[in-house]
Amino acid sequence: MADAFPGTSPLPEPVPTPVPASEPLPVAEPERPPFEHAKTLHLAKWSTRFWAWLIDIILIVLFLNIVRGILEPFWTLHFIWDYQHWGIFELGIETFFFFLYWTIFESYKGQSIGKMVMNIRVVNRDGTRIHWGTAAIESLGKAFIPVLALDCLIGWLAMPQTKLRVFNRISNTIVIKTDYREPEGVLYVREKE
Fold it and tell me: pLDDT exceeding 70 applies to what percent of the chain?
């Protein structure tokens, strides 16, 4: 090759380099199937939760009015909207009834009457049924109306898009939509009206 081009020197012969010990080739990880959810829980809307709460408030106030009518000859209880005559004792009794109502109903089936009407339910974050202790913590924010305003406001501003109140976060609960389905093996035929 040096003869082909005058004034050039021949290139040195390449020195063979030792081949490193064969390392195992990296094995590609098998493709993982996409994560499949065991359950799909649909969070309830704020508006649905509000209407369920309002239905419950109306039912409790109606019940308290019946109790007031029975106790009227012996003891005077003022209405909840008669705030000029509120006393700590009367307010405490009414708040206790609100708290007791939600704790009992939601610990039993996760639904108060308002939640049954609106097809929503309180459950643990994994979708399992809540127990009475959890229901009591979750109900604290709803039973005390001034606390409820702060509870919801902090939930909306500090935890946007989670649909959680502060007491939902503390009690580790969520409010989900429920389906009212026909039992398996039963077909309902609806006649035209």
Answer: 70
Phi/psi for 182 (5° steps) reads -75, 145
pLDDT tens-place string over residues 85-108: 666 666 777 788 889 999 999 998
Structure tokens of 138? Answer: 């979750």
Reduce the DSSP state of residue 21 to 3 states and report it: coil
Q: Where are the alpha helices (DSSP H) in 20-165?
A: 46-71, 88-108, 113-118, 132-143, 145-158
Q: Is residue 185 packed enough to be buried (19+ CB in 10 Å), middle (13-18) or exposed (0-12)?
A: exposed
132 φ/ψ angles, rounded to the nearest 5 degrees: -65, -35
pTM: 0.68
Q: How many whole angstroms separate alpha carbon 174 and alpha carbon 163?
A: 8
Cross-strand partners of 43: 176
